[in-house]
Amino acid sequence: MMIGLGSDLCDIRRVERVLERHGQRFIERCFTEIERAKAERRTSALRAATYAKRWAAKEACAKALGTGFAQGVFHSDMGVVNLPSGQPTLHLTGGALIRLRRLMPAAHHPSLLLTMTDEPPYAFAQVMIQAMPEGHGTF
User: Fold this and answer.
1) Is 59 annotated to bind ligand?
2) 118: which of 87, 88, 105, 129 is 20 to 30 A away, CA to CA?
3) DSSP string, 66-106
4) Is 77 annotated as contributing to ligand binding?
5) Class assignment of domain 2-133?
6) What is the SS3 assignment for 35?
7) What are the residue boundaries of the 4'-phosphopantetheinyl transferase domain, all occurrences included (predicted)?
8) What's the whole-model pTM score?
């Protein structure tokens, strides 16, 4: 059963400007250690796009949760991680995880589906939150 859907389009140039202006302060405030490591392994030409896609994923997730960045949900509560297959998904903590748990019907567990792409100067992400009956795996 679908619980929430969110999407976001981010201008990579805007992220580049924020990185130039605020650097590590912005990175450490908004991105998880895993996200930072992934972006910092990229070439300088791909670094901002890597952060922009993850920024868009966080924005899309906040929309799918139905809160935006309110009610205790922060950018740092959502982190893009990759499954062993390489497929991206989201790992939620803090207020985002609390909100996700409140959205789940009894005897269901969440499945967070994420897709991200970029075509400079834009990055796009879409998140779908599903409630899966206990005993059923995720996709």
Assistant:
1) yes
2) 129
3) T-SS-TT--GGGEEEEE-TTS-EEEEE-HHHHHHHHHHSPT
4) no
5) alpha beta
6) helix
7) 5-96
8) 0.93
